[in-house]
Structures are given as C-alpha cells and as structure tokens.
Amino acid sequence: MPEDFEPVIIGFLCNWCAYAGGDLAGVSRLQYPPNMRAVRVMCSGMVHPDIVVHALQKGADGALVMG
Amino acid sequence: MNVELLTLSEVEEFSGNEGNFSVRIKKNPRYVDMDKCIACGLCMQKCPRKVDDEFNMGVGKRKAAYIKYGQSVPLKYAIDAEHCIYLTRGKCRACEKFCPTGAINFEDREKHLSIDVGAVILAPGFHPFDPSGFDFYGYGRITDVVTSLEYERMLSASGPCMGHLIRPSDHTEPKKIAWLQCVGSRSTNRCKNGYCSSVCCMYAIKQAVVTAEHLNEGIPQQTIFFMDIRSHGKDFERYYETAAAKGIRFVRARPHTILAGKNNMGVTMQYTAEDGRMHCEDFDLAVLSIGLEAPEDGPVLAAKFGIELNSYGFAQTTDFEPVRSTRPGIFVTGAFQAPKDIPQAVTEASTAACEAARALMPARGALTHEKTYPAEQDVTSQEPVIGVFVCSCGINIASVVDVDAVAQYARTLPHVGFVENNLFTCSADTQSLIAEKIREHHLNRVVIAACTPRTHEPLFQDTLREAGLNGFLVEMANIRNHNAWVHQALPEAATQKAKDQVRMAVARVAQNDPLRQLKVDVVQKALVIGGGVAGMNAALALADQGFDCVLLEKSDRLGGNARRLAATDRGQKVAPMLTRLIERTESHARIKVLKKAVLRSAVGSVGNFVSKIEVDGDTRAVTYGTAVVATGAAEYQPREYLYGQDERIMTHLQFDDQLAQNEAAVGRARSSVFIQCVGSREPQRPYCSRLCCTHSVKNALRLKTLNPEMNVYILYRDIRTYGEREDLYKSARDLGVIFIRYGLDSQPVVSRKGDDLFVEVFDPVAQLPLKLYADYLVLAAAVVPHDHQALVELFKCGVNADGFLNEAHPKLRPVDMSVDGLFVAGLCHYPKPMDESIAQARAAASRAGLILAKEEMQLDAIKSYVTENCDGCALCVDVCPYRAIKLEQEKIDGRSHIVTDPALCKGCGLCAATCPKEGVYVHGFTLPQLKAQVEALLAEATA
Does residue B239 carry a pLDDT above 90? Predict the structure, then answer.
C-alpha cells in the first residue's frame, strides 16, 4: 500500500446519534481526516447488508455503519 | 409557532387573578440580533476577553461573547455585559467587526413588555449546594477536592478536559477516587438542609461507573462513602447492584476529616466504619456529592407571585395537588417544587401543563396560529430539474471550502438547472429568493449545500412548500458541520469533499418523490384503564379539559389501593380526598364509569382504537383516540418471617387496617418491630419498592405518638426516605424509634416461644446479636405488578424485567408508552407514593390531551411501505419493533404479501434491511435512493 494512500470511506450515520455526533463535532471544531462521506439514515438498522456490499464492490475502501 | 421564548428576561411585576394575570417583563439586552445571528461562533473566536465558564463550573474558560453550551436553545450567541471590554471600558468591538451578518448590536437596550396570561408555571430549577466555607470538606482549600458538578463537567466529552479525566493538582489521571455523599443534604448540623436531595446516590454511582471509560490507563478504584444508598427509582437498584458487581466499593461511613495529601496533591481521609473501627485512607481525588437547594432567588420570586414556600425554600404544594402553588392559577414544577430526578421533573412538567390547560380550558385555541400554504404542484411526471444553493455561511464555509468551485462543479451535474451561491442560504431574504428561483426556472427539486438537516431541513422544507413544491423534494449537503468546521486546515480536501457531498445530494434528490404526511381522524375520546387514584385523576384531568372519557374498573368500586391508606406522606388524610375524588368522577358529565369491566380486545392505532369491553357479563364496543393505563399493583403476600402463621404478623396494609380499626389496642403494645424490604431488593425481585421505608417510618411515628413508652424497631437495609420525607425519618429517630440495619446475608429470624413472638437480628453497630420481643411484627411487603400479559398482548406494549409497564423513554418520554397513543400512570409503571401517582396521572392526561385536542393528527411521512416484490416471506414481521407489519391472509395474484400500518410504523427501516427481495422500503430512504448516493460518491470520489 502506497504511503500516500487515502481511503474512501462511506459512512451510514443514524440521524439521531452518529449524525448528530458529527454535527456536534462541527460545533466543537473537532478536526478529523476528510476521508469519510456520510449517508444519513433514520436508523442504522435500516442499512441493508446489500448496500454495504454494493459500496465495497463499487470501490469504497471501507464502510462504517454508525448508530 | 405557538411557543415564544423570552431569554435574558425577568419578571418585574405580577398582578391579577387566576385566568387573568398581568406580567411585566424586563428583557435584558443580548447585544446580538437573534434574527441575524447564525451561531457561527466568530464573535466568540475573536473576543479577547476570557472569563470563568460558569457552565463548566469554572473549570474552563469562556469568552465574553458566548453561548452557554453547544446545545443551547435558541442557538444564538450573547454578549456578557459584565465582562465585555467595550461595554465596560468603551473600547474593542472586535466581535462587531468580524460578525459576518452584522448581528452585533451594542445599541441594544433593556426592554420592558407586558403580557396577559391566564395561568403561570414556575420552573426556576435548583441551586447546587456550595460547600465552600465548610472547612471539614476542604473544598477550595484542597486542590483535589471537587464538587460532583465539577466532576461531571470534567468527565464530559464536551467539557473543559474533552472527556480525558485529569485531576486539578498535577493534571495526571486520578486512579483512586472517593465520592462523599450527602454533602449539603440530610444535614442539619452545619447547614439547614434536613431533606434528602434524592438524586445524588444515583449520579455518584453513574459517575463512578463511567469514570473507567474516561481513563487512558490503569484500573480505577472508586469508593462511595454513603449513609444509605437511595436507588429507589425504576431500574435504579439493578444499576446499583451492577456497579457493586463491577468492583465499585461502597463504604457506609461519613468521613469526618479530609486533609490535603503530600504537596497538596490528593487527599487523606479519616472515617469510622459501621463497626466503630477508625480508618485512614489516601485518595487521588475526592468528589463531593453536593445536594440540590431551592433557587437562591426563590423567595424574591415567591414574593412577586404571592406564593408560599416551605421551610426549606421549596414551593409549598400538597400531596393531592402536587404542582399547584398556594395561589390559584400558579403552578410549580421541577426541583423548585422539591428535589427530584429527571424522570420525575419531566413528568411533572407535563403535570403542570395539564393544570394550566385545565385552567385555560374556556379559552383553548383562542390565540394559537396555524400556517397555510399554496396548492402543491404535481411534479411526478416531470423530469427532475434541480436547483443547487451553495451557502458560504458568511466565512464559516467559504473560508475553508472554495464555494465558487463547488457551485461551478454543481452546474456540471445531471438534472441541475440552476445553481447559486448565497452568503447565508438560511436568511429570510434568501428564502424568498429560493422561492423565486423555483418559479422562474421551473425547479422541481432543490439541494441546499449548507449546514445540518437536523436543524435546518424544516426551514427549507417550508420554503419549498411556500413555493408550491412538496417539502420532501429538498435534500441538504452538510458542508459546514461535517466539512468546513472539521477540516479547517485542509481546504483542498474539504472542497473535494463538498463536491462529493453535493453530487451525492443531487443524485439522491433526483430520486425523491413527493411524500404525504398521513392524516388520521382522531376519535376525541379517551379510555382510562383502572379506577384507582391514578386512573380517576387521569380521567378527571381529561374530562376537565373537555374530553369524553370511559373509565374502566375491574372491581365493583372505584378507589383501588388508596381505600386502604390512612394518610399521605405529608400526613394528609386519604379517605375524605378519596370520597370527593370518587364523587367527582362518578358525577362528571364527560366520564362514563364502567365497573366490573374487563378489556377483551384492542385494535387500531393512535387516534383510532376500538376495544371490546366486557361489563358484568355483557360485551360492548368502545372507540377511543388514546388510552391511559393505570392498572395499579398489589401488595406482595410474604412467604417469609412466619407470615400467615400468626395474626400479630402483618403486612403494611393489614397493619394500616389494624390501626384504623383498633388503634387503642395497638397503642397498648409494648414492642413493635418493622422489617423492611420484604420481597424487595432480593434476587427474585431485585427492585426497591420505593414507598415502604416512608410507610414504616410514618407508622412508627404514629405508634410513638400513641404510646411514647412503646419500643419501636425498624429493621432495614437502607432507609430510603427520599426528598422531604427525610424529615419523617429524623422525627422518628428523635422520638426514639430504633433503627437496626441488616444485610441480605444476615436477615432477621422470626420465632415463637410459647405465646411470645421474637425477632433476632445482628446489630452491626453494637456488633451484637439482638433478640427483640414483638407484640406486632409489620412486614414492609413489596409492591408487585399485576400480570400484564393480557394487556401486553392486546396493545403490543412492553414490561420491564420486573413486570412493570414500560415508558417510551425513562427521561424524555416518561409517561408515554412505546405504542403511540398509550400513556401510563400510577403503580403499574413502578411503585410510588400517592403524590407521584397523581402527578403522573395528570401528566399522562396532558400528553393524551395533545392528541385529543385536534380532530385529525398528522403523522410523520417517513414510513415503511410494501413494494411489488413482496412475496409474503414474513421475515420482516418479527423484526419490526413496533409490530407495524402483518402478513395479509388474502393473496394478490396468487402471492402472499405483508401490509404495514403507517400509524404504528416509526420509519426505522429494520424491515427494509431484513428483506432479501426489496419487498419493503421506507419512504425517503429507499434502497434505490441510498444506492444513488453511494454510486454517485464512488463514481468519482478520491479522498
């Protein structure tokens, strides 16, 4: 793996906790790496396994389901 | 829309009578225009003045331009005039220079306004006890002695230590931490707070438990020094047991001397254990579990409003009217009424709302507003034409993200018909502009690249509706909170991320369909199940608000357990109150009482339930919009302590009967013994029954009053006379009632010798076995729930591990049940004294009234729905936590399928994630929509 490797991570974030946590991180100006792209969902329980697999097949380097 | 928040305001004058009060209010200047402030925080960043942060208990610093904390409502900055350099010395104005919206207004002056109101609710909260000046705690003198509130902020991830626990003296991680309970509570020696603050045991246990999560290395040793552990709330005893099992040490002692450790680091504590042995122990940090006091300005407030306070400075109320002040039309709630925990405070907030609604009943709806919108255009047959509005948020986004580049990029995306960059997309003029552009460019979808949908989506949905579009045709790309603010040093990567976010939102919004918020007709009638004090109070509170009620009672008369109670905890006689309550209930024109009635079925959902009720053999159907469940509980029938074998051995309620009927005979006894926790706090029933300690103490007091010569013993595990009930405990001790503690491993033994009854117990203070003679042995038998299985099956509601009915959320929704439209009150929820049952019943009525007040109710639009792929495999039926999915018996084209009930569905999508065939989706979050976002990202993304 090259040293400058920057993974593309897709995050499925529960509206009520993880996504809200992301918002609060912003308000608090907590700095973190810009590699994740968030998809907001109403519950992490609605994330179908297929879509995680789909994301990985389409080239995502990682998938985070947070809730 | 119907709540107006007046911040920085205080009441100057108050006059009038119930139903017609006049309030004069002074509104202090904020120096920030709330309409212009976008809470970007630049004023705070640029403000040069640092002051102690009172929200963080002075542990950290804040600026003179500030918000109290990140979740402030309204989220608008303010300038602290006492510390602002300009306002105190006439120079600076840095905030004004940098504020991107011109929101700073140093010309702001205090304003006075008068409003007319029909009812008032006072909720000024409590004042944390200040241990400064109490030399033996060493607070303020010993660096590593902190208050529990300071410790709470030290633990908080958003607190001054960012959640990494360090002690004040040398900024190292403390490993050995001690909590001292009852600091400023249960204390009449050095302060005047004789009451128990009710919440400190639980918060100390919580702090001890979570401490482990905030240390980076090593294993913490947490010790809690206490007098009695008071974990009398629902599921609290389990929490306590679990904490002990995790290794948190509980020591029954009140340390008498606290000294600074070597070099003023840590503390050395001396204490005497229960067995009389002296100990000296070192700790890295000591936490003082400070109590709750009445608010400092309580007396001023009370004088202004003409209400009375009790001896501790809390608002005077009665057990039968728990939130009613001494002046009609003025209600009190929260810790101003008495020290209480969050579930109780939230419950009683609804109780106060109920009382205010009752008082305002004749004028209901007179001043409420409702918004109207133009007719919605049908866009379903149109190709998507998407408008993208990229927000600079002043410089909040634009200083990191190249917003012009993002806007340029958006123009290249499929379906995008219009793009614009705004300084503030959320400002009122931009809303008109968006509506204008929608019409001008025939936009039928909108993307807002700005801040978070969690706060701003409703605003933009509203803008779309005003422009004649369905509100669900907007999508937000969160390029501020999730991007510019968290990648401040990486402008290029942030810009790239913003482009990706916009691309994802555009791909998704193209797939959005208009959604309808389902409206259901409401049957404006309530069913109340249970005719005890809670049920009758709920029914009356609803009926007084103008709603019809059916009250269902399984026995042949109203009154429930209260029929056997003599007096409330504050000594008010129950019988006359109960008689009046029953009379009012039975004679109220809006209440129909059904006795000997059993609920046989329940179908439907919020707004529309139908039940078959069997009344004395006949079955009838009742329709109702909501139900309050108040089915009560029973007294445990003991199997221990020779109960049932000797008539001198009685339960609480039996002894109450005895006192009512043969008071003189009871008074002649030489010796009476009470045993606490009979059937409670034991492995088979590991909860505290909450009311038994006070019950026994009250009866012990009564015996001592009847016959001061009588020996009265209370054998207990922890005395839990929480709140102002502590006064009773103190009186009992003062009158000579003897309290002897026993442990679960050394329970008392009851025996008979000849005609005499004896109780043997080991006294842990004297370290001696005692043999007590008993003319009466009273067993403080547990409160046990009724069998709720039938109810659970009918309504699909839930019970906790102990069999008590569950609330939707213990703190946020303490009287709602998990099934919409159902509310819970009284003993069926958890053991509680009468004042709390009444408060909870009226709170339930208030919550139920919200549904009943309108002829129709709007449900959320995010609901599951069945697609043509469904083949009825029914995998989703069991995973649905709300039981909103049923397998339909009738087939369509020979195929089975499910049906979803939108009134029950909460849109969590567990069904959608379970279904292997895409047979069920959630509106707004369909697999194609989520896939569109994922694919849009991965088509181009480079991190």
Answer: yes
